[in-house]
Amino acid sequence: MRAFIRWWKLNYDKPIFQEPYKCVALCLNYMKGRNVEDWTNDCQAKMDADVVYGQSHNEEHHWNEFKAAFNLTYTNIGEVVNAEHEIERLRMEKGDLNTYIVTFNKLAGLAGYSPSDRGALALFKKGLPMLLNLSIVQHTNPRPDTLVDWQKAAREQQLKYLQTREFWKPLSSKQKAFANRLGVNNQG
User: Fold this and answer.
1) Taking phi first (over 0 means left), then psi (-120 to 50 degrees means alpha), and beta for anything else, what does residue 93 get?
2) CA torsion 139→144→145→147, rounded to 10°?
3) Rounded distance between C-alpha atoms, residue 21 and residue 56, angstroms
4) How many other β-carbons are positioned within 10 Å of the β-carbon of residue 151?
5) Cβ distance 28 to 43 under 8 Å?
6) What span, in angstroms and rounded, lies between the C-alpha atoms of 124 and 26?
7) Angle (CA) 139 143 145, round 5°
8) Is 171 helix (H, G, I), strand (E, B) or coil?
9) Which residues contact 179 (CB under 8 A, 6 or more apart)?
10) Backbone angles phi, psi at 110, to 5 degrees
11) Contact 101, 136 (CB under 8 A)
């Protein structure tokens, strides 16, 4: 479905994509396999019946009904539950913040969280190393209060850490202690 919609967006100016009935028929045409054949035939028959009973080929009703039927039939309800479990267990590993953010955002979307959900922000913080969270709180002004802002601050603090880390090896233990008092902490 996502591939078809992207193709539709790329070819929106083509006549076939101007008529909802034809869009549905074209999409049904590309759905192949014995497990979907009866379903696609039923969808086409329902759409044809709607036209017989007075619906125009140009009515958005055709696409909306098809999309709802597709989502009802082919949505993996287990995907939501799995995403909720995975996001609960997700943690940033080996200092790889980018992978953590991408994975978190994907799972959050699958689990039904929006970027403005406070629960999503709490889960995101939970998966970050404690020292990275502390660094964000201590060194970001104003303190971020949305998921997007917290992710931006995490990137900034992680970059500072990575840039600072190159100086750690030559430091003596006294120098490291001094750096720690300045608030430069190991976050990875």
Assistant:
1) beta
2) -120
3) 8
4) 20
5) yes
6) 41
7) 145
8) coil
9) 164, 171
10) -65, -35
11) no
Residue appearing with tokens 């020292």: 131
Q: Which helix (H) or strand (E) holds 102?
A: helix 97-110
Q: List pLDDT tens digits, range 103-136.
A: 999 999 988 898 888 899 999 999 999 999 999 9
Judged against a pLDDT cut of 60, whether residue 187 lies above it is answered with no
Q: Is 21 exposed, middle or buried (0-12, 13-18, 19+ CB in 10 A)?
A: buried
Tokens representing 140 are 């970001």
- Distance, in Å, from the CA atom of 47 to the CA atom of 41, rounded to the nearest integer, reads 10
Domain ranges within the chain, ordered by starting residue: 2-74, 78-182
The pTM (predicted TM-score) of the whole model is 0.58
Residue with tokens 């971020």: 144
Residue 93 per-residue DSSP state: -
Distance of CA 79 to the CA centre of its chain: 13
Residue 129: asked if its preceding bond is cis (omega within 30°), the reply is no
